């Protein structure tokens, strides 16, 4: 398999309370205060690859850094450290500001969470889908109209809806416009940030089936971000589990959900309600996640909430270790491996 | 059966609600009937637009001014909530019925510390003297599992996470130990791990207080896990009421069956999941069919144009359909 996206030792840190002005910095220096500003470790030393034609799921709680990672990969923000290789090209060298006019911009596209909020309310469905074609493909006139109509019908959007504004469309139709807009410029990598979170189950199924079909038709790779594990399991080949800026587990989706190795993944899988199942004694997470501001590099991020945690977890951060085609960042992974 | 003899905490009969809009009258609820017993948890399930929340708002007497209850009763003990005077309702709300709203961040007062917001309810509805309320509010925060409640009581909603705000809402709702709790999508927008913890908390507290709970959700799997009976709604109609296990094992209304088939589950693959054809009918239409599902229904017969069958009030499994699944 050819690697499409190779992310290595990627980090994104945000200073807390904004960058101080020059006077604040001088004052800090003369007062002898700490030189280093506190920082939020939104994404901390993350490495993974996405192969061509593969669907990778990214799951984790809100605040774990999913969206930051996605925004950095789609080059909406700049990385603090690490490399992002897209095919042969190193993307992290191009500032996000310049990437907007880059020829490769069209190759990475994104479907945003709530199509109702991410489509300009003053754009008709036609304009929304045509916008990236005008900007990135410089299409005009008849060619543009034709392309928009082709993409709309590929996404199952009836052509008479193209003249409507977002508020005149249903949730499912808006989701179709969001997808059509993203695939109009024929990207190689489509990043989907919870594309079905705002939809009813009946519509969700249709949209997921549409995404599956489009992937087979155009051979795109997907990075599918979601906190709905039952949806990730349906659509994804591989899954990455994030917790507080770190990848704690990675592997084939079916295996990870059937037999999770990291205690956090175990809790996550146990928390998913299943049809016709009563609440049994399940793994429960207690306590609050630790602060992402300057976390101790020697402490496992999950310690404090972890049911398996021991003192060893407070003195050494577990590295992401490989077991066959699975990866786990836990000192006790072997224990969970032998248990059926 | 058991629930024929038990005293219902709330009995809704024939609730009909209309909204006047510029583009016509929206018949949002039509002849909605269900009941919930003391200590029981039922779930109202349906797609968005099915009338779940409107039902709750009508019962609470907090409908939008454009909305009007045109028929029906909602009996809480001896009091008909739909006919009660505003002053009577004000005493009942918060004391007898409480509600947990969908989005805790917008439902909480943004410019008042959360401890004060709980104290307000305690003073108004809980017969707690003004000087003791702050200390009791801290106890409530502790009871809903907030760590360091003394410090958190002084926090504003924006300083807390979504899960924490939802805990505060639960504390406010339960402050006066109501006999009926309406939880309107209490975990939408929360993570699955937080969702499990919040739902555990609601069911534990409900059990302790012997409270009746109406749990509104669009997540059929979650409803199945947390309720004894399920009320399925579609386009302002109650289409099926059944004990949870029976509903999943033998759904009788075609819509319920489709809804179950569309819900992602551990066993199914994407191709096996069914989508429900069509969409909710426009409730402003003058020619709305008697069965509002008939235009999407694969089992439609000529009989379906008749007014919906009258349910047997004693039955445990109620289906509003002329041609139900066997």
Strand count, sense and closure of the main sheet of chain B? 7 strands, mixed
Global structural class of chain A: alpha/beta
Q: How far do the termini of chain A sit from each other?
A: 31 Å
Question: Total number of β-strand segments of chain B?
Answer: 11
Strand content of chain B: 15-25%
Strand order of the largest sheet of chain B: 6-7-8-3-9-10-11
Flag low-confidence runs of chain A.
none
Q: How much of the sequence of chain A is in beta strands?
A: 15-25%
Please tag this protein with its features:
heterodimer, A: 340 residues, alpha/beta, Rossmann fold, 8-stranded mixed sheet, 4-stranded antiparallel sheet, 12 helices, 21% strand, B: 326 residues, 11 strands, globular
Descriptive report:
The complex is a heterodimer of chains A (340) and B (326). Chain A has 340 residues and is α/β, with parallel strands linked by helices. Chain A is 32% helix and 21% strand. Chain A has a single domain, classed as Rossmann fold (3-Layer(aba) Sandwich), CATH 3.40.50.300. Chain B is of the alpha/beta class. Chain B is built from twelve helices and eleven strands. The relative contact order of chain B is 0.14. At the A-B interface, helix 8, helix 9 and helix 11 of A face helix 9, helix 10, helix 11 and helix 12 of B.
Please describe the topology of this protein.
The complex is a heterodimer of chains A (340) and B (326).
Chain A: E1 3-15, H1 22-31, E2 39-51, E3 55-59, H2 66-73, E4 81-86, E5 89-90, H3 96-99, E6 108-111, H4 115-118, H5 125-136, H6 141-154, H7 171-183, E7 189-193, H8 201-218, E8 221-225, H9 229-235, E9 238-243, E10 246-252, H10 253-258, H11 263-270, E11 321-323, E12 326-328, H12 333-338
Parallel strand pairs in A: 3-8, 3-9, 6-7, 7-8
Antiparallel strand pairs in A: 1-2, 1-4, 4-5, 9-10, 10-12, 11-12
Helix pairs in contact in A: 5-6, 5-7, 6-7, 7-8
Chain B: H1 2-5, E1 8-21, E2 24-37, E3 41-45, H2 52-60, E4 67-76, E5 79-80, H3 86-92, E6 97-100, H4 104-107, H5 114-125, H6 133-143, H7 149-152, H8 162-174, E7 180-184, H9 192-209, E8 212-217, H10 220-226, E9 229-234, E10 237-243, H11 244-249, H12 254-262, E11 318-319
Parallel strand pairs in B: 3-8, 3-9, 6-7, 7-8
Antiparallel strand pairs in B: 1-2, 1-4, 4-5, 9-10, 10-11
Helix pairs in contact in B: 5-6, 5-8, 6-8, 8-9
